[in-house]
Amino acid sequence: MSDALDELTYDYEDEGVLVRKQLDRVILARGGWATVMFLYQELDREAGTYRAPKMAIVRFKKWKGAYRKQSSFNISNENQARQIVEVFEGWYPKMRAAGAPDDGDADTDGSGEDLGAEG
């Protein structure tokens, strides 16, 4: 893995063939634990074309100076993405009602450092 978060990519080659192609990415959190969202396509080897785009939310841990993938969640279609958005939209009013602080766009890694979204 890369030692620089800005150099991380979701491209993947197998035997010289690009089988996973990154289309875009957004860095959601920086620090010792980084979160990056990728938009990508996978190659359909039989057809020789790329399938419909998917999304992945990937968590990286910085270890010995390099970022290593710790976990990921793939969002495979628009319906699933919209369902996730609906849940978030339904939960935020409940969080506010329960007294959760509204810290706007701020994201922290526990250190108190604002890690706001970057792309």
Give a description of the structure.
- This protein is an alpha+beta fold and 119 residues long.
- The chain has 1 helix and 6 strands, in the order ββββββα.
- It has one helix spanning 78-97, and strands spanning 12-14, 17-29, 33-44, 49-50, 54-63, 66-75.
- The two termini are 19 Å apart.
- Residues 105-119 have low confidence and may be disordered.
Structural descriptors:
alpha+beta, 119 residues, disordered C terminus, 1 helix
Major sheet details: 6 strands, antiparallel
What is the average per-residue confidence, as pLDDT, rounded to a whole number?
A: 87
Percent range for helical residues? 10-25%
Any idea what the radius of gyration is?
A: 17 Å
How many helix segments? 1
Pick out the low-confidence regions. Answer: 105-119
Principal-axes geometry comes out as flat
* Total beta strand runs: 6
Going by helix content, strand content and strand pairing, the class is: alpha+beta
